[in-house]
Structure formats: C-alpha cells, structure tokens
Write a structure and sequence with these properties.
By secondary structure, the chain is mainly beta. It folds into 2 domains: 88 residues, Udp-n-acetylmuramoylalanyl-d-glutamate--2,6- Diaminopimelate Ligase, Chain: A, domain 1 (3-Layer(aba) Sandwich), CATH 3.40.1390.10; 190 residues, Hexapeptide repeat proteins (UDP N-Acetylglucosamine Acyltransferase, domain 1, 3 Solenoid). The chain contains 2 helices and 36 strands. Strands 10-13-16-21-24-27-30-33-35-36 form a 10-stranded mixed sheet, with no helix packed on it. The longest helix is centred in the first third of the chain and has 13 residues.
C-alpha cells in the first residue's frame, strides 16, 4: 500500500469538483493507457475509447463532464483535467519536504537565510545574499554575492545565480578587458529555476526575475535582463543582456534573444527562434529571424 493512499471522494472535495460513481481507493497515479486498480488518471477530451480498457478496474478518472467513464471507475468532473490532475498530485502524492540545510553547504556570515529553507549538498552561498522563507535550493548550486531569492522559490541543482556577466570592452592597446558587474540579481516570489541554469547579475542596476516565473533547465539569462511576472522560459534558451520580457510571455525551447530586444506581454516565441527585433504584446512569433505569425489567443 502506498504511504500516500487516499480515495476519489477526498480528492474531489479537495479540488472542489463534482464526484460521480464509486468512492474508489486511490493509492497512486497512472496514465490513461495503463489502467491499474486503485490508481488515478486523467483524460483531456471526451473521447471514451481509451477508457474501454478501464472496464472492471477500480480506478479514478479526472475528465470532462461528458466523458463516458466505466461503471467500475470514479469520475471527478473537471473542465481542466491536466491542471486538476497536477493539483491532486501536489496535494496527495508529492513527498512533503523537510526543511534542512546540508552540513556540506558553505554560507558566508553576511548571508541572510529565512525560515524553513532547504539547501542541498555542496552548495555555496556568498556574501550579502538574501534567501527568504520556504526557499529550496538543490545540490551543487552557487548563489553569488548580492543575490536575493524571494519566498517559496525553488532552484535546481548545478545552477549558478548572480554570475558575473560577459561585458567586454577594448583598452588602449586593443585588448579585451572585462567590465565589472556590481549590480544585483533579484528573484521574485514563487519562482522556479531549473538545473544547470545560469543567471547573471546586473552591470550596475539589477537583473530581475518577476514573481511566479518558471525557468527550465539549461537556460542562460545575461546581465540587466528584466523578466515580467508569470513568464515561462524553456530549456536551452539564451537571453542576452538588457533584454526586456513582459508578463505572461512564453519562450519556447532553444530560443535565442539578442541584446536589448523587448518581448511584449502575453507573447509566445516559438521553438528555435532567433529574436533580433522587438516583439509586441499578444502575438506568436517564430523563425530565424523571428517574425510575428499571428495573434496569441
């Protein structure tokens, strides 16, 4: 028996959704294609054909109102099955975190660490860092000087926050010199940053990541970038210096954005695009160079 065992009626009550049929036990989750007694799955549309294999299975299906669910299964009625399935996983099946700071972490005496913070093995927290309450930081992650991390944010393993940006200028002898970056990195509340991601601090002013942003693995964000609230940046994307990205934007995998470009609120940049000019609000832009394809509904 799973330590997370519950039942379909309890899940429905938690989600504030209608429950139909048997109050079946729910010990774990599965996919629609793999019916198992005591497991929960979801169906996005009303096509009942994949559910035929659930006949006789004491399962639980989260799905639309007009979904035909076998009589052996519980039906939790949802207008957004994937979202509600995720919320159910969070509430009933995600292991509860026990806040702890590994003994192998190095923390500078000037760093401020909030309550209920978790920091993984071999991580480094440098001087003048502020980490607010309920933050989770993975293993082997470095948080460099003058970085602020907001409440309930999550940072993956092998990530570097507040790195020195790649700002260069030539001296009188035509040799490259590095411009010191003395700004901050400010990360908002409820932000998620994946593993092996690097975010640079500002040259003078701060690099800022807004509240509720989700940044995937293997993303690079350069100095002075401003990312608006609730924006998503997906794996292998590169955001160059002084870029402005609005609220609720979606940056697909492997996007490159050149220095100084602005991307508007609620816009989507398609996979592999190269952005060399500003993108307005509420559009879908794709290609190399990226061009506006249509409005984003």
């Amino acid at each position: 028996m799973s330590p997370f065992a519950t039942d379909s009626a309890r899940i429905a009550r938690h989600l504030e959704l209608e429950h139909r049929g048997h109050e079946n036990p729910v010990a774990w989750a599965t996919t629609l294609a793999d019916p198992i007694d005591g497991h929960m799955a979801f169906s996005i549309n009303a096509d009942s054909n994949p559910l035929q294999r659930w006949n006789g299975v004491t399962g639980t299906i989260i799905g639309p109102e007009n979904l035909v669910v076998p009589s052996s299964c519980a039906h939790i009625v949802s207008n957004s099955p994937r979202r509600d399935f995720g919320l159910a996983l969070q509430a009933f099946f995600e292991p509860k975190r026990i806040p702890q700071i590994s003994p192998t972490v190095i923390i500078h005496p000037s760093a401020q660490i909030g309550n209920l913070v978790s920091i993984g093995h071999n991580s480094v927290i440098e001087e003048d860092v502020v980490i607010h309450d309920d933050v989770v930081i993975g293993n082997n992650t470095t948080v460099l000087a003058r970085t602020i991390i907001g409440e309930r944010s999550i940072v993956g393993s092998n990530t570097v926050l507040g790195s020195i940006g790649f700002g260069l200028e030539k001296d009188a002898e035509n040799r490259w010199i590095r411009i010191p970056h003395i700004g901050r990195l400010e990360i908002g509340d409820d932000v998620e940053i994946g593993s092996s991601t690097v975010i640079a601090r500002g040259t003078i002013a701060a690099t800022r990541i807004g509240n509720h942003c989700k940044i995937d693995d293997n993303v690079f964000i350069a100095h002075n970038v401003q990312v608006g609230e609730n924006t998503v940046i997906i794996a292998n994307s590169e955001v160059s210096g002084s870029v402005r990205i609005g609220r609720d934007a979606w940056i697909a995998p492997a996007v490159t954005i050149i220095e100084g470009v602005s991307i508007g609120d609620n816009s989507l940049v398609g996979i592999g695009s190269v952005v060399i000019r500003d993108i307005p609000n509420d559009v879908v832009a794709v290609g190399n160079p990226a061009r506006v394809l249509r409005n984003r509904v």
